[in-house]
Write a structure and sequence with these properties.
Blueprint: E1 11-13, E2 20-22, H1 25-31, H2 39-45, H3 49-77, H4 88-121, H5 129-141
Helix pairs in contact: 3-4, 4-5
């Protein structure tokens, strides 16, 4: 069986099968680009990438809280005393629309959090097992 030639650190032949398993693409991409050419990348992506991700996740929880508070506030404004609509059914439709929009955006944020937690379970988030376990547990259980 013929295989495409790859650098030795990218392709690994399994001993049990004829398949090739590729290591993360990031290692092969960054192997050709010295990080010293870009201090910004060096600052955030060399050994500190999990810290950056965790800080972004804290922002995700803040976004979820802001989304909920906004939806709850708008829900309170859709009443006959505050807003005059031509038919009573439109009040229900407007409230449903607000919570549907909230659900969509909260689902996007929640999916991002779940993906990070899932990768922690595979020990792919960080080189530190403790950090993987802690972040995974907090995002899945917290």
């Amino acid at each position: 069986m013929q295989f495409r030639k790859c650098p030795p650190d990218v392709a690994v032949r399994s001993k049990n099968t004829d398949k090739i398993f590729l290591e993360p693409i990031v290692s092969s991409v960054t192997a050709g680009v010295p990080l010293s050419t870009c201090p910004f990348l060096t600052q955030f992506f060399v050994g500190q990438f999990p810290v950056l991700i965790v800080s972004v996740r804290v922002g995700d929880f803040a976004a979820l809280a802001a989304l909920y508070k906004t939806a709850a506030y708008l829900d309170g404004l859709i009443t006959p005393e505050v807003l005059k609509l031509p038919h009573p059914f439109i009040y229900c439709a407007a409230k449903f629309s607000i919570w549907a929009i909230y659900t969509f955006w909260a689902g996007l944020v929640g999916t991002g959090l779940w993906i990070i937690a899932h990768e922690c379970g595979h020990q792919a988030f960080s080189e530190s097992k403790f950090l993987n376990d802690a972040v995974g547990w907090l995002l899945h259980s917290g």
